[in-house]
Specification:
With 234 residues, this protein is of the alpha+beta class. The protein folds into 3 domains: 3-53, Structural Genomics Hypothetical 15.5 Kd Protein In mrcA-pckA Intergenic Region, Chain A, CATH 3.10.290.10; 66-124 and 214-233, Alpha-Beta Plaits; 129-207, Alpha-L RNA-binding motif (Alpha-Beta Plaits, 2-Layer Sandwich), CATH 3.30.70. It contains 6 helices and 15 strands. It has helices at 3-9, 15-23, 115-122, 143-151, 187-194, 225-233, and strands spanning 27-29, 32-33, 47-49, 52-53, 62-67, 96-97, 106-112, 130-136, 154-155, 158-159, 164-168, 175-180, 199-207, 210-211, 220-222. Strands 5, 6, 7, 8, 11, 12, 13, 14 and 15 form a 9-stranded mixed β-sheet that branches. It is elongated, with a radius of gyration of 20 Å.
Length: 234
């Protein structure tokens, strides 16, 4: 196993962050500092980070969390806001969020110590879908706005892929459900603004095959092995 992957599986950091830890000279294998993230290691090697021996790869876990408003989707926050990882007591496992969900948005976010799975779920190549419910300003959402979102709209960082969008309620409703597979910064918010409907509230209700499914705000649950395998299959 590559050293960077070994560190990620041991819960040290995501694989990309583990590569930086290695290049910084903080990792030793059998007493020798190793700077190559591609170095092969196995269970017979003694791997240390900052002088602390690793016990080997820890159990892979994934949690579904209903992130409340005001909580940030990071492991740490320099502005004193509560990080989403504090919502889960994971018995010493080092968890990190899968992707982003803005502090002023709520809903489903995944936490895991599986760096490889996290990368697959967030990499644009895999086009993992996320579904949001958005309450919009600017009056009732008309058919023209819905058609524009379904075609894709032009943002300052390029055109978006077509979205699946439906209006929730009657023709006078300002609530929509939108499914996208891109992960651009504040994408749903920007798409809605382009079609003349500023975002008032945003909740993520599904991530791939997973749904909030009645999970209360601030609550979490550990995914079953079957659910985790469904995520890997994406």
């Amino acid at each position: 196993m590559r050293l960077a992957k070994y560190l990620a599986h041991a819960g040290v950091a995501s694989r990309r962050a583990a590569e930086s830890v290695i290049v910084d000279g903080r990792v030793s294998v059998d007493g020798e500092i190793v700077l190559d993230p591609a170095r092969d290691v196995d269970e017979e090697n003694r791997v240390t980070v900052d002088g602390r021996a690793l016990a080997g790869p820890e159990a892979r876990v994934v949690y579904a969390v209903n992130k409340p408003l005001g909580v940030v989707s990071t492991a740490h926050d320099s502005h004193g806001r509560r990080p989403v990882v504090e919502l889960v007591r994971a018995e010493g496992l080092r968890l990190y969020p899968v992707g982003r969900l803005d502090a002023d948005s709520s809903g489903l976010i995944l936490l895991t110590n599986d760096g490889e799975l996290a990368n697959r779920l967030t990499h644009p190549r895999f086009e993992v879908e996320k579904t949001y419910r958005a309450t919009l300003g600017g009056g009732p959402v008309g058919d023209d706005a819905l058609r524009a979102l379904r075609r894709g709209v032009e943002l300052d960082d390029g055109p978006t892929a077509p979205a699946r969008v439906r209006r929730m309620g009657g023709r006078r409703s300002n609530l929509i459900e939108m499914t996208i597979h891109e992960g651009r910064n504040r994408q749903v918010r920007r798409m809605c603004e382009v079609v003349g409907h500023p975002l008032l509230a945003l909740e993520r209700v599904a991530f791939g095959p997973l749904e909030l499914d009645g999970l209360a705000a601030g609550a979490h649950r550990r995914l079953s092995e079957h659910e985790t395998e469904r995520l890997r299959a994406l």
